[in-house]
Amino acid sequence: MARKQPNFILLILISFILPVIFALTIFHTFKRFTMEQEIPQRRNHIIVIGKTASNNFLNNVYIGADKVSERYNAVVELYVPSSKAEDTSLQALFDYATFVNADGIIAYIDNESDIVETPTGSGRTQIPVVTVGHFNQNIPQISFIGNNFSESGRILAKTAFEYSTNESALYIVNSSTKTQGYSTLLNSLSVTLRGFQMNTTFLEGSAKENEDFLMPELFNKQKHNIIISLSEDDTIRISQLSSDTLYNENNTIISFGNNDTISTYLEKGIVSAIISVDQEKTGTLAMKELFDYKRTNFANNYVYAGLQLIKKENKK
Predict the structure, then answer these.
(1) Residue 307 class from Cβ within 10 Å (0-12 exposed, 13-18 middle, 19+ buried)?
(2) Cα 103 to the chain's mean position, in Å?
(3) Which pLDDT tens digit goes with each residue over 137-177?
(4) Which residues share a beta bridge with 77?
(5) Rounded to two decimals, what is the model's pTM?
(6) Confidence bin at 31 (pLDDT 50/70/90)
(7) Which residues contact 256 (CB under 8 A, 6 or more apart)?
(8) Which residues lie below 8 Å from residue 297, measured CB to CB, with a gap of 6+?
């Protein structure tokens, strides 16, 4: 019987491949080891949650929280549905935080947020929650990070005056609930405007309820109208009306409050200015309240974050 000759090509391939595999294994082991040395495991897991409409807002909150994460030996995770089709309830977002056993939650609360159950971690201990966006007393929270309403009123008035001319007409749309905060804002706004001696009309009710009045004003290209909207929903409706009237560049829309839709209208030049809470600072302050609470079992109920003014001319 003839002896079978060895497959020299196969032997050459094996002799070449095995050293390569060995080298790659050593490289990845070393890389993983060095990464573990450079990025140590952190003890605390903080999760930032909210719905799709608050994505830009929460991304900035996340940036602010992540900047100080090392100080608190924490990892910060941003968990927001990627599209409206994937949107879910606030309770489902809280349930996710419970599922991953988060050590703290920063949650965006919108105007329509329902009552939710208190999120709990291992051992049924309550997970501390800091809320941002809109205050809702029915949400189980240790702190709310929000606006200084008195300062907000002054900045709104000053911004309107900076856009005004001697012929400008100022309209203030106020459908916000009669909370103490908004009462403070309106008082500050009114007092400051009197000092500027601006021709001002206060419209009670929503933009939709005032459409019959607003539409002719938005159409009038012979007149400079300044409209201050004190709610995000009203800003969106006024912006829609302005778009429907073939966009009148003589209209100046100033929004108190910001979300993804309003930011889009600012980029299009329909909204002229947005005054809202400083979002990155909100994230930084939320981390402070969470870890003060974990350390002392105490947190401030309401914390003022700084304000930011964004103008369309600065976006160009």
Answers:
(1) middle
(2) 21
(3) 888 899 999 989 999 999 999 999 999 988 889 999 988 75
(4) 47
(5) 0.76
(6) very low
(7) 152, 156, 185, 228, 229, 230, 231, 235, 275, 276
(8) none
236 contacts 268 by C-beta, under 8 angstroms: no
Task: Return the closest-CA partner of residue 78 out of 65, 62, 89.
Answer: 62
Task: Give the integer Cα–Cα distance in Å for 168 and 217.
Answer: 12
* DSSP result, 74-142: EEEEEE--SSGGG---HHHHHHHHHHTT-SEEEEEE-TTPPP-PPPB-GGGPBPPEEEEES--TTS--S
The helix (run of H) or strand (run of E) holding residue 67 is: helix 55-67
* C-alpha 68: how far from chain center: 18
Contacts of 160 (CB under 8 A, 6+ apart): 170, 193, 196, 198, 226, 228, 252, 254
Residue 197 exposure: Cα atoms within 13 Å on the Cβ side: 2
pLDDT in tens, 68-106: 999 999 999 999 887 666 677 888 889 989 998 999 999
Distance (Å) of CA 243 to CA 11, 151, 172, 208, 273? 73, 31, 19, 15, 16
Distances (CA, A) of 146 to 10, 108, 281, 304: 70, 11, 10, 5
